[in-house]
Amino acid sequence: MTTITESINQPLALTGGPKAVTRDPQDILDWPIVTPEDEQAVLDVLRAGSMSGTDVTRRFEAEFAAWEGTAFALAHCNGTAAIQAAMWAAGVRRGDEVICPSMTYWASGLPALTLGATVVWADIQRDTLCLDPASAAERVTGRTKAIVVVHYAGYPADMDPIMALAEARGIKVIEDVSHAHGGLYHGRKLGTIGHVGAMSIMSGKALPAGEGGLLVTDDRQIYERAILWGHYARHGDLTITELLAMSGLGRPQAASGVPIGGVKGRINQLASAMGRVQLKHYDRRNAEICKAMNYFWDQLDGTPGVRAHRPPRDSGSAMGGWYTARGLYVAEELGGLPLARFCEALTAEGCPAGPGANMPLHLQAFNEVDIYGDGQATVLANATRDVRAPAGSLPVSEAINDFCFGVPWFKRYRPEIIDEYVAAIKKVAAHADALKA
Q1: Which helix (H) or strand (E) holds 405?
Q2: Domains of the chain, CATH where assigned
Q3: What proportion of the chain, given as a percentage, has pLDDT over 70?
Q4: Is 205 a catalytic residue?
Q5: How far apart are CA 242 and CA 250, in angstroms?
Q6: In the predicted model, what is the mean pLDDT of residues 276-297?
Q7: Which phi-psi region, left, alpha or beta, contains residue 96 (left: φ > 0; alpha: ψ -120 to 50)?
Q8: Catalytic residue among 189, 205, 411, 426
Q9: Can you give the pTM of this predicted structure?
């Protein structure tokens, strides 16, 4: 087999040379892992006809809370529902503002609009791709009710300054852990640092359950508010007097079991069953993902033009799941070669790559749309100022296509296969001058 050094010395595939990646990837990129154990767990629920029950879900929640290290976990039909419930439970109401990084999936911020609140988009840090605490601090006003922190592509956001800012101003912090299940920030599990965590567990995530979401917290009031919001069949779990009264359980002859938010947020127990099995094996599978991805980046250490998107080894922080794995690009080290051209050459070598990540949300059309018939853009309908971020206002997010690119998300540690992808990147970096012609 061709060694990394031999591959580097060959002409680029883009100019007629041999590809660097020639091996069958086998199952190194496949996800999720579904075994007969998952199938049996789902079949048991299906045959029992208990898809809309809560018994399996409650066991899943208890197991997840124990694994996460929180007092409570509440399963939802998807991550979007979990984030919406977290916002309402954290006190987000009409006229409030929610700060959210622009570089994320839309569900991190847009549920605020359904609550009559508005989203204030903030910038990210170039090295982490996560919310920049300084940018968040610049956007805090008297109307700020919550800050959504996204641990983007598995990287733990810089939580200490964000929590200090929030505690000083009485703001709730919602951690979106959809990309980073099991990740650590200075030794603390992501989702346990803010006031409430929420995450997707859809089939493509590092912790996959088919389709679902989870809300986690140590705050009983937040947990019970989330039940009241969208889990009508579980109002019997409520203990807080105020919430009992709102549910109807605290008043004689009053109707109960009606979700205060008019939504049904519960998870289907087919997903809960799969989630229980996946959780049982997650630490081992995540460890192998981390071993594979760290090997990949260790081999690339010192390669001009590329940097690993991962925390420093001695920081006590660790990637969680590496969902939508990314690399960082330094064009100056390759003579200013545009990232799009770099990625084109990588793809030709058999290493699919593309510049950027999510399209920054502050530049998308919904910022101008009247969703609910307010007579003006919905993001302004309940605001006292124009909260929109115009082009040029979030420079790091807007430059994402220049310095961030997708890399293979390895699920298994197989160095002989990973080495070919390493060779592809080293080869393209070594021939950068040829790509500028």
Answers
A1: strand 404-406
A2: 4-33+281-357+399-435 (3.90.1150.10), 36-276 (3.40.640.10)
A3: 98
A4: yes
A5: 8
A6: 98
A7: beta
A8: 205
A9: 0.96
